[in-house]
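Researcher: Here's the sequence for the chain we discussed earlier.
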Amino acid sequence: MVHFDPFAYEFHEDPYPTYRRLREEAPCYRNEELEFWALSRHADVLAGFKDHELYSNTAGVALEQTTDDVEGALFILGMDPPRQQKFRGLVSKAFTGRRVDQLESRIREIARMHARRAAEAGACDYVQDFAGKLPMDVISEMLGVPECDRDELRAQADLVMHREDGSREIPDESAGASMELILYYVDFVKERRRSTGDGLVDALLEATVDGERLTDEHVISFLFLMTIAGNETTTKLLANALYWLAKNPEQRGLVEADHARIPQWIEETLRYDNSSQILGRVATRDIEMHGETIREGGRVLLLVGAANRDPAVFDDPDRFDVTRDCTDFVSFGKGVHFCLGARLARLEGLIGLETALEFFPDYEIDEGALVRVHNTNVRGFAQMPIRFRT
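Model: Thanks. This is the structure I predict for it:
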């Protein structure tokens, strides 16, 4: 019988064989020891995203719960409608198509600045020197975080996501990094309340929900969420894309011959090996599925990575193909919890990968020096040394 343990490092090396067996043998899988259910088929994961009344978000997205105050820690990621929709409406204004498109020229400036610096040596760590810096700078500029603080915030954000091999506990370093970020934003919010401005944070400090102002705690939670989510997933997208193109020479030839295929390259990476692999929910009532009963209050994991490789939806799903139609992938979720930053992530991906191909031509990845992150939700690289033609 298939066994699924999202804490196991071996699973993160290549989760897809496990996903395949889950879809075939146990589409409604129960882990008695860790007390969770896992859904792996595309139709079931899609339903889990779309039916927010049956699958609640109020326990957060991770299997390991770090606080009793999930809403306070995760802001809209710990809420359900209608409350979630009210708060989401406040912050969604920063991610409209018009607002995101206005960022394009500045994102290009940032990308070229970091790529130029990394390219001067003829080799670099693609994650540390480029892919991690670009989204952190973009989010920081949206929030008004000073440039001098960004490297330290990114280092703390990386620590927040780190998990130890074989451990189901939050490491002390991770908990400490979370506190450091929170304390930074406590001071940041205090300073912004003493001044006046027209930025995103200033607008949130003046905003109201049902006639009440947002508390400092809500604003701090939003800033924390943006620092983690806005940095982590796009960094992994940029690195996963480079990695899989290198592993598939025929597809690489298509992209390098025609840069108009870069958006397709991004979409296929999001399907084939997306950053956010697993998202948690809680059953609000008993659910009958595939001969099993998920009891009310049961923890349910939506296996996004498994759904994106479901052969019922995608032909030859284990093949990386930049010409594929990826319309039906669930990498950004669906329904009321659809990722707010999807448009921004795609734009950063487009600019980041265009810039990478320009500044790191004929790149080669030092596979022996690759380091993966170890996290129950996120899949990608912490370190990716590359060489390229100068």
